[in-house]
Design a protein that fits this description.
single chain; about 280 residues; mainly beta; OB fold (Dihydrolipoamide Acetyltransferase, E2P); 2 domains; five-stranded mixed beta barrel; 3 helices; 16 strands; globular; endonuclease activity
Length: about 280
């Protein structure tokens, strides 16, 4: 599928979840030959700290020689197996791609924006030659773009056009994880828990005191907390009913399950987690 960035809208309440929107950007295209032209993500500004890599934990997490852990911003990669679970497909490939890209001797340039709840430093990571790690992974089809508030104020919108372009390139060419069929909400089950790219038709939008709920076909509900609604201020969520959407985020089972409500939930924190595809049937 050629997935150009489409305009977004935001729906209401029914079940809780995470959305994935694609914004309309003025991407540069060679229309005559149908080949996208991608400008590299700009190299880091002067004066940023550097560090030595100790090891690659997984596709989006690094360990530095000073024992700090780094979590890449703007990207999520397939998970390595833990606690008896097997690796997700492409997880080992993503880890190896990071190791190959960074090498053992290269120092890293870090643009750090605070910490996450696991005490990992959230950062954009560059090689000394200015090439960006997240862009490399997205171009290879070994990760998904993702934005989760709170966003560092110093980064502005945090939406790097180059990352959208890098993912679009991999998607058009069906590289890596884009070679697989996108999950339809009608067949989603608890086995699909974890980070998920999914499509479904909105059946109902509802609002409660603290949340907006978007009910998809099947057993899935999307949830927008009202503390995050300001991110969706340009959207009219109430008009989403009947629309087919593509969302990306962490799909979870609702605990405890509630009679008559969807058992799977995805929390939408930012419009970059949802794309409106129009009133069309999922393929």
């Amino acid at each position: 599928m050629c997935s150009l960035w489409r305009s977004l809208k935001v729906p209401g309440q029914f079940r809780s979840g995470i959305f994935v929107f694609r914004f309309l950007f003025p991407a540069v295209w060679l229309i005559s030959v149908g080949v996208p032209v991608f400008a590299q993500c700009p190299p880091p500004t002067a004066g940023l700290p550097s560090a030595q890599l100790l090891s690659v934990i997984d596709g989006d997490t690094l360990l530095l020689r000073d024992r700090r852990k780094i979590r890449l911003l703007d990207i999520n990669t397939p998970e390595l197996g833990r606690d008896g679970r097997s690796d997700e497909r492409w997880a080992q490939a993503a880890k190896q791609a990071v190791a190959d890209f960074l090498g053992k001797e290269n120092r890293l340039i870090l643009d750090i924006y605070g910490k996450d709840r696991y005490n990992r430093h959230l950062a954009e990571v560059y090689r000394e030659d200015g090439q960006m790690l997240s862009e490399h992974l997205l171009q290879a089809g070994l990760g998904w773009r993702i934005l989760v508030p709170p966003l560092p104020h110093s980064r502005g919108s945090s939406d790097k056009l180059c990352l959208y372009q890098a993912e679009e390139q991999a998607r058009r060419q069906k590289r890596g994880l884009w070679s697989h069929t996108i999950l339809n909400s009608k067949v989603a089950t608890s086995a699909n828990q974890g980070f998920t790219l999914m499509r479904g038709r909105v059946e109902q939008v509802a609002t409660s005191q603290h949340s907006t709920w978007i009910d998809l076909e099947g057993d899935v509900v999307l949830h927008i907390s009202h503390r995050d609604l300001h991110w969706f201020s340009a959207q009219d969520v109430s008009q989403w009913r009947g629309q087919t959407v593509e969302v990306r985020g962490w799909l979870r089972s609702r605990k405890p399950p509630r009679s008559g409500l969807a058992s799977l939930r995805m929390d939408l924190r930012h419009p970059a987690m949802i794309e409106l595809l129009g009133k069309q049937l999922d393929k």
